[in-house]
Amino acid sequence: MHDGIYFVNKERRIIYWNKAAQKITGYSHAEVVGRCCHDNILNHVDERGIVLCTVTCPLAATIKDGVSRE
Q1: φ, ψ (nearest 5 deg) of residue 14
Q2: I need a labelling partner for 59 at 20 to 30 A (CA). Which of 10, 12, 26, 68 fits?
Q3: Where are the alpha helices (DSSP H) in 1-70?
């Protein structure tokens, strides 16, 4: 698989990090697994450049209400 994939638990702690994610980001499995996605290692931003993890996290919202987001 060429897509970078990671899984988080309900606390948004990364519990799975695939090889493509490692290749895309440069972060190894050991550097990422166990850390929270909002530790700013991934730096999620929207199309306007707004940092999502500190303002309005779509992942946190989906965990809370179960509604899918893109």
Answers
A1: -70, 125
A2: 26
A3: 19-25, 29-32, 58-65
Residue 1 lies in a domain: no
Residue 70 lies in a domain: no
Distance (Å, rounded) from C-alpha 52 to C-alpha 26?
21
Tally of domains in the chain:
1
**Domain limits for position 27:** 6-65
- Does 51 reside within a domain? yes
- pLDDT of the chain, 70 residues: tens digit per residue: 789 999 999 999 999 999 999 999 999 999 999 999 888 788 888 888 888 887 788 888 999 999 998 8
Residue 20 DSSP one-character state: H
Identity of residue 70:
E
Distance CA 52, CA 18 (A): 22
